């Protein structure tokens, strides 16, 4: 039999074989909803925010379905001296402390108490506020790299702080601020000065932005040395001033361990050798049922903050247009970018902040 005839017979056999494919509808595993807690008390001025919801099916952590929010619980913050502050419901699943005299204090221990409408109670394990060193300074590095249509070039902001020697310390950082944005602009008002056919207004603004990443550190290998921690990546969309603020928090060992586990699960590469993800059980539990543990965390922290104003004077327009054109939309800058301020008005609270001019 020739090879050609053999291949033809094999093809014919394949074509006449009945299909072996059938639809399968595997059962979807359903897990009972669990209480989810997110909140902390700090040495900053109140109010302090506690967020409550139930676990469930949703596709985006920032878009929790309304039916999963808890709006009818009784939430109370307490310290080890017997003082307390009720936290009334505000909106969604958000509660805020109401007593302006109930302020987080270094050395004090705090607990959270939650009573659901079903009558079920939850309490947190005690969290003691440890001191946190002050931020000595903030430094800025210009990162000229960029990813087309994803991010432009950026400033990398780092916090410098002395770590106390001989004591195990755990830290967390958050950062936010205003960065300059540009749009094509909109039509000018009648009161605007004449500028011919080239006149456009409302093309520049300062947009509020924040760092949502979990940024934690243990001083296990740097005890007593200077901490130099990258804390914010400020994108450079256009010319203008960057107003940035960094907050440094102390953490208990339990809180640090929780965030380490969170980062371990969210940063996995997806290898088949990875361990299976486990629920991120926190420190809030049902005192009459030790197996009923809420997801999430309640923590207590001391804080230190620092602000900086960055004025870049070295940027070239051709460079910004080349890498940032995808980030310059049509229309009014304020309409295009939420939480924005006029370009010629500095945000409140930055008076007296350190300022750096980059040439």
The chain-level structural class is: mainly beta
Helix fraction by DSSP (H/I, runs of at least 4): 10-25%
How far from one another are the termini?
A: 81 Å
Q: Over the alpha carbons, how many angstroms does the gyration radius reach?
A: 27 Å
Number of helices: 4
The tally of beta strands, per DSSP, is 21
What is the string of helix and strand elements? HEEEEEEEEEEEEEEEEHEEEHHEE
Unreliable segments (pLDDT under 50, ≥5 consecutive)? 3-19
Report the principal-axis shape.
Answer: globular
- Beta percentage is 35-45%
Mean pLDDT: 87
Number of domains: 2
Main sheet, how many strands, which sense, barrel? 11 strands, mixed
Explain how this protein is built.
- The protein has 359 residues and is mainly beta.
- It folds into two domains: 35-130 and 253-301, no CATH class; 137-251 and 303-358, no CATH class.
- The protein has helices spanning 3-16, 253-266, 317-324, 333-336; strands at 35-42, 49-54, 74-79, 84-87, 89-91, 94-96, 109-115, 121-124, 127-128, 137-143, 154-162, 170-182, 204-210, 215-218, 226-235, 242-250, 281-286, 289-301, 303-312, 340-342, 354-358.
- Strands 1, 2, 3, 4, 5, 6, 7, 8, 9, 17 and 18 form an eleven-stranded mixed β-sheet that branches. Strands 12, 13, 14, 16, 19, 20 and 21 form a seven-stranded mixed β-sheet that branches.
- A hairpin with a 2-residue loop joins strand 5 (89-91) and strand 6 (94-96).
- The radius of gyration is 27 Å and the shape is globular.
- The model is unreliable at 3-19 (pLDDT under 50).
